[in-house]
Amino acid sequence: MTSRGQSTAVSTPAPTGDGRSVTEVQYPSDGYPADHSVAGSHGTHSAHSAHSAHSAHSAHEAHDSYGTQDDRAVPTIGLDQLHDTVRRIAANVERVLVGKPEVVRVALVTLLAEGHLLVEDVPGVGKTSLAKALARSIDCPVSRLQFTPDLLPSDVTGVSIYNRQQSDFEFRPGPVFANIVVGDEINRASPKTQSALLECMEERQVTVDGTTYELGRPFMVIATQNPVEMEGTYALPEAQRDRFTARLSIGYPDAAAELAMVDEHAGANPLSELRPVSDGATVQRLIDRVRGLHVAPEVKQYAVELTAATRQLPEVRLGASPRATLQLVRAARAQAALSGREFVVPDDLHAVAIPVLAHRLVLTTEAHAARRSATDVVRAILARVPVPHGNRTR
């Protein structure tokens, strides 16, 4: 991307009339996003454009009451256009991540839900490649941040620097002032630096020296971490994990997919050949479209019962929060859109429950001793809580 010669420049956010500030982004003249470089305590970190993927997920036929529309205004963009854009993004990502359509689906659901994605797995399975491929598929400002132990909060959010010519302080935006922020090995940064993302991820804004700056839309954080090498790492606090809409593990590919990867990727890097297939404005329209999908009262109640069940189990020390309920419904809306429906059914909640809920649960010592995982707990809850069926449960 740097060979295009022009880098993305993020100007100093200008305060608006109400005391808040808005970030102004200058786009490269050739239509492609240039690399957004950020100087941190470890030097300059390059940012790349990203890509996201989708694979259709089937759902059972729904009762008529699920499809009842309310009086909200329906955005102009149609599901056909959404499917076309999603298909192109998915195909782009799958050029890099071979044989993992389910992983791509979860990543795309998170994107359409305007959430944040935590990719947690062993080294070498494609965590960073997934994040970069998703980012490169969308023509919008993208930043990449390599988390290290000596990284400071100001290296993430930005810093106020004294301008001698103007005899005043001016704000230099950090890498979070982008539409997609790729954070590599987030658990290698100190808790103080990790906490610099809390306000960004939840409120889509940054406060520095008493001034609040709005972040652009859409805004998505894609973070990776390695759960195996624990030396020199800092576990993400629960408040940080709860802000990630979904967590996924890529896993090892099967023999056929690994052989295809050797044939296709051994001689060239597929990331270098990716080109954007959509843009930030289109993705934001898709997000707005998904946000308007209908959720019946029975389905909302089912989502509440699922998260409430996680707080009542003896093997769970900390259950899912109310924020998890909101994220579960938003992700279910995105899953329904990928399935071609204007309304959410219980199967949509089932399809996203594990990636949305499992990483939020803290199990007891006894559960760990019994080799119970958070994924096992969520599966048990899905099997136990009665599923609504129209105006009754089953």
Number of helices: 14
**Which outline best applies?**
globular
| Class by alpha and beta content | alpha/beta
Radius of gyration: 21 Å
Strand arrangement in the largest pleated sheet: 9-12-15-7-16
Keywords: ATP-binding, Nucleotide-binding
GO molecular function: ATP binding; ATP hydrolysis activity
Organism: Saccharomonospora azurea NA-128
Protein name: MoxR-like ATPase
Describe the overall structure.
- This protein is 35% helix and 18% strand.
- The chain is α/β, with parallel strands linked by helices.
- It has one domain: P-loop containing nucleotide triphosphate hydrolases (Rossmann fold), CATH 3.40.50.300.
- Strands 9-12-15-7-16 form a five-stranded parallel β-sheet. It has a four-stranded mixed β-sheet with strand order 2-3-14-13.
- Strand 10 and strand 11 form a beta hairpin.
Short description:
The protein is built from 14 helices and 21 strands. By secondary structure, it is an alpha/beta fold.
How would the blueprint of this fold be written?
Elements: E1 9-10, E2 14-15, E3 21-22, E4 25-26, E5 38-40, E6 43-45, H1 79-94, H2 101-112, E7 117-120, H3 127-136, E8 138-139, E9 142-146, H4 153-157, E10 158-163, E11 168-173, E12 180-184, H5 191-194, H6 198-203, E13 205-208, E14 211-214, E15 220-225, H7 238-241, E16 246-248, H8 255-265, E17 278-279, H9 280-291, H10 297-310, E18 316-318, H11 322-338, H12 346-357, E19 362-363, H13 365-369, H14 374-384, E20 388-389, E21 392-393
Parallel strand pairs: 3-14, 7-15, 7-16, 8-17, 9-12, 12-15
Antiparallel strand pairs: 1-4, 2-3, 5-6, 10-11, 13-14, 18-19, 20-21
Helix pairs in contact: 1-2, 2-11, 10-11, 11-12, 12-14
GO molecular function, one term: ATP hydrolysis activity
Region (Disordered): 1-72
Organism: Saccharomonospora azurea NA-128
